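Step 1: inspect the first sequence and its tokens.
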Amino acid sequence: MTELLVVAGEASGDLHGARLISELRRRVPDVQTFGLGGDEMRRAGLEPVAHSSEISVVGLTEVLKILPRAREIFADLLREVDRRRPGVAVLIDFPDFNLRLAKELKGRGVEVLYYISPQIWAWRRGRVKTIARLVDRMLVLFPFEVDFYKDHDVDVVHVGHPLVDEVPVLPQAWDGDGNGDGPFRIALLPGSRAGEVEALLPTLLESVKRLSAELPVEARIIRAPTIPPEMLDEAIELAGVPVEIVDADRFAAVADSHLALCASGTATLEVGLLGTPMIMVYRLASWTYALARLMVRLPNVSLVNLVLGRRVVPELIQGDANPERIASEAARLLTDAGERERMRAALAEVRGRLGEGGASRRAAGEVAAMLAEVSPN
């Protein structure tokens, strides 16, 4: 039996971790995975020490609230490591937690494979020295990350992005509607964490209300599995806006939408791969945002814009993320065919920029190779 620690702390990491575990079990049938994850990783076979939703938050204020529980989970993971003695650990994104964990694991002689790089090329670049010291192999999703890590003497492998396989090519709303005289279908993606949804959803719903005064629209919320339905129901009732909640076939629902209003994060890549025009909207606590501005070194925030290397998707952040501005940008994209088609043409490049499919399979191959190195017999 081969023991493997796997730790993911967010919804996207949980999904990618589940794909990795499934692929790995085909290569190493006797592998036993344990650690921190969500529902997807549990279904793939992870024996959970805790559920990742307990400590998946955004913003400094929110982090302070869950610190006691995070410390408990941290200690529980190490106790389980001491009991089961894995030779390898796979740490998935979630850097503030996982890099601290990597230090403890290295002290116990556990080889650390990091899957999905923290965005240190965007902010807090000093952490690359910590990574070089603690991480035995870094698996990255984006081609541009390879040179960055090589420049800092980190063993790095580009495996590609799992979303290339996970997000299908589907018919798009604009292709079926010609010039699109309405009603326009608007997809709302307010995030996968409760704090994000609480901060963004009321603003998005108010934006839809304002937009509906100008154009015929039908709104749908794409619910992340980590968000309880009652949270959305409450926001919809307070806003007084008729909105459909989509729980299943979210990719089909987004592809069938004329426009997406999307929180920053992995969801922007999903929407980009589907080719649906979008506006990225994000808001943080004021002091969290002030600190982030001091540290971020990139001109764009959206992953789609970063992958494409230019500003394609509007980014409405903090004060700009208000209902009036969002509704104005939405109306422009829905009614300006030239602007809309320019965005659609650019989004059609995203899939090619992310590389070939098979990322989870290649990542599993790297994990299997490291397991073999640690336990050659």
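Step 2: inspect the second sequence and its tokens, then contrast the two.
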Amino acid sequence: MHLPERTYELVRASVPIASVDLLPWREREGGREVLLIRRLDRRGSPCWCWIGGRIYIDEPIAEAARRHIVETVGTDLVAEPIVGSHPDLVVEYQRTPRDDGPYDEAQHSIGLTYLVATSGGEVEPGGEALDARWFPCADLPGDDDFSFGQAGLIRGLALRAGT
């Protein structure tokens, strides 16, 4: 069930929103790589981010993850399904921008964040993604190229994916 936009705005202003965030990774000859998308932040500036978004009512986390992958990078990417509900990281996004952590000026949200193993498949940016690109785990964009206070979080998960 999807709420009318006006109702959803009231909900976002009233309670934290549950979301699922994904950092897909793959094995390559040169080592492991992670997939990032380039999208516009809330101020309209392009930035690199992980894939993700809200979880719908009664939607299992694994289905929300798959939906976001398909909407953002297409149907060709083969991703291992999320099993269970134990994320690799839980991220709380506050509405007030801050230098020491994640934020989203539009909403207070809780992101269940997963490293997702992938194999094969091309990525085709869609939905909010302006671009989608694989980066070696040790060679990510600069901190200023990220938004939502995610630079350190993505770097930390990329290090875990790279081992």
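Step 3: confirm your contrast with the notes below.
The radius of gyration is 15 Å. DSSP finds three helices and eight strands in the chain.
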